[in-house]
Design a protein that fits this description.
Length: 333
């Protein structure tokens, strides 16, 4: 059951989830963080053989401690801190809050950072209207390079779905706006809309139908391309979608891993085995897998190990996700 009403600013002000829905909402950040930490040791390394079992061994680009998540989850935590306040993520105030946290992370906490995101954050002037300045830096990068459809906004988007469970249109608008802070290209925004639609539906009814349903939330002119890309991912083996720094193969790799596996652990292992940007593909897959199978499906060993900036562990990630999905219930508890 879900019961939501919409306030004057458009944000959901009342949300009642069943215990199963609550478990699935709690899995979104935790699933992403576990995928991230599982993929960290293998980022841009030789792809794992089909029978190899990845481990949260640390190392990678950081280098990271065993179980430590990387920039993907660090940036998603920045979004989550604002989302968990109950803010409407479409508002300028909320977007300014996210932009402020991205800059703080970039200067104080970033253990590694993607090239595109780094370019935008370094060029963002610290002034009033921070989100607008960040979007302008993103547009400027696009004018100079024509290439701003990296996977760096998709990797941090799952939590956005939890902020608008009762309103798919508001969710799609928020996903696109949060993406556009660093990723000007419409394809990056489209990918975030599709993935959030998938996360939303998975939390609400435990199915994976939402990714394809998300096609209806895209501009008509781009639906056909995305339908074909999703079909391609559904028919091809996951390893075909490498390299995956571009947002389209990154989404295809994650989708391919999610739909051909039947539990969270197998899904994340399959995502890491795709190779190339392993932590990001597995973080993307992990948000949807966590939404589909719930926090309770995360193995105890991973739950005990996973951690990262700014000093969060599994329980903190669960709390942030729950507060985002159900601000009223969390405030009352
Ligand atoms: Mg990373």
């Amino acid at each position: 059951m879900i019961d939501g009403t919409t306030g004057a600013a458009g944000a959901s002000v009342l949300m009642m989830l069943t215990s199963d829905q609550r478990d699935r909402a709690a899995g979104v950040l935790l699933g992403a963080a576990c995928g991230d930490a599982l993929g960290v040791p293998y980022e841009f390394a030789e792809p794992l053989p089909e029978t190899a079992v990845p481990e949260m061994a640390g190392g990678g680009l950081g280098p990271y401690a065993p179980g430590e998540y990387s920039d993907d989850t660090q940036m998603q935590v920045c979004v989550a801190e604002v989302a968990a306040s109950g803010a409407d993520l479409r508002s300028e105030e909320a977007l300014d809050g996210i932009a402020e946290r991205f800059l703080r992370w970039f200067h104080e906490g970033a253990s590694d950072v993607g090239l595109q995101t780094s370019g935008v954050l370094a060029a963002t002037a610290r002034a009033g209207g921070l989100s607008r300045a960040m979007r302008e830096a993103s547009a400027d990068l696009h004018r100079k390079t024509g290439r701003t459809a990296g996977n760096g906004s998709l990797m941090r988007t799952g939590i956005v779905a939890l902020s608008s469970l009762s309103d798919p249109q508001a969710m799609a608008e928020a996903a696109r706006l949060v993406s556009s802070l660093t990723h000007f290209d419409d394809l990056a925004g489209d990918a975030c809309v599709l993935w959030c639609s998938g996360v939303r539906r998975a939390v609400l009814d435990g199915t994976l139908d939402g990714v394809r349903e998300g096609l209806d939330l895209l501009p008509a002119g781009r639906r056909g391309h995305w339908a074909a890309w999703l079909r391609d991912a559904e028919t091809g083996p996951p390893w075909r979608f490498s390299p995956n720094g571009f947002v389209v193969p990154a989404l295809q790799a994650a989708w391919s891993a999610v739909i051909r596996t039947t539990d969270l652990t197998e899904g994340l292992v399959t995502a890491v085995r795709v190779g190339n940007d392993t932590d990001t593909v597995a973080a993307i897959a992990g948000a949807l897998l966590g939404a589909r199978y719930g926090a309770s499906a995360v193995p105890g060993e991973w739950r005990a190990k996973v951690h990262g900036w700014p000093g969060l562990r599994a329980d903190d990630l669960v709390t942030l996700a729950r507060r985002t999905a159900e601000p009223a219930a969390e405030a009352a508890s």
